[in-house]
Amino acid sequence: MHGRRRQQEREPTQDELQQAKQRVDRYRTLNSHVMDLKATSVSTNDALDATKRLLEQNTELHTVWNYRRTIFTSLDEWQCQDTRQEMLDGELKFLLGIITKNIKSYWMWNHRMWALSSLPRPEWQRELGLVAKLLALDARNYHGWDYRRFVVAQLKDAATDKHEVDTQEFAFTTEQINHDCANHSAWHNRSKLLPEILAQRDEDGQLEVLQTENDLILNAIYTDPDDQNAWLYYDWLLDIQKSDEDRSRLLRNKIAAIRELLELEED
Fold first, then answer.
1. Whole-model pTM over 0.85
2. Could you report the per-residue pLDDT of 125-179, keeping only the tens digit for each?
3. What is the tens place of the pLDDT at every residue in 10-58?
4. Rounded Cα distance, 216 and 206, in Å
5. How would DSSP label each residue in the chain?
């Protein structure tokens, strides 16, 4: 931080260096053990436990995640629906325990998708609430947003009112953008949803939605004129207009906003 004296880093003691070396040695030993198990196609509960201990230390080992899935599906217990449900419920708890250590890990999110998809009785609504809490830890995490879209798609497939799912998710993006207008992932998700939202409305309803979008964009621009997300969304919104009248109206609003910002800069 500016104005603060940088603290000099303390040299580690010999005991600390020795402990660090021991941790590295234990990790290498465990990694070699798991690779040997994989090479010989061992699919047992002991192998499952070994992969778990390794992944707790390093979530980026995609080959180990792949091996772990192979073990699960090779176990005799996998064939029993109730047992599989219990096994995968435990897997989801395991993933939740390590997710905060590296929330940006693609391989971990990918494995969670597999676990949910393999559950005989998945609870997608509960998962949606969970992913909202995880995004609260890192609201711009695009892996988390990709995962959220996956969960919402499953909910939508099973819903009797698919429009309501879109409407609720659209409201979620509004909440996220109002909280942080520089959240690129929220703007991107909104762009995926808006065509569906417009398709659900009549002509008057579409005009109302476009006015709401215009207001949201302008609020973001006035909050942080230098951030590109709202400007890019504005350009995208102009491009998708089918009506010259709607496009002209939005363009006039954009020009007016630019002029006002320039006047504020001069002041």
1. no
2. 999 999 998 888 888 888 889 999 999 999 999 888 999 999 999 999 999 999 9
3. 788 888 788 888 899 999 999 999 999 999 999 999 999 999 999 999 9
4. 15
5. -TTSPPPPPPPPPHHHHHHHHHHHHHHHHHHHHHHHHHHTT--SHHHHHHHHHHHHH-TT-HHHHHHHHHHHHHSGGGGSHHHHHHHHHHHHHHHHHHHTT-TT-HHHHHHHHHHHHH-SS--HHHHHHHHHHHHHH-TT-HHHHHHHHHHHHHHHHH-S-HHHHHHHHHHHHHHHHHH-TT-HHHHHHHHHHHHHHHHTS-HHHHHHHHHHHHHHHHHHHHH-TT-HHHHHHHHHHHHT---HHHHHHHHHHHHHHHHHHHHHHH-
Q: Which tokens in the block code for residue 131?
A: 């992913």
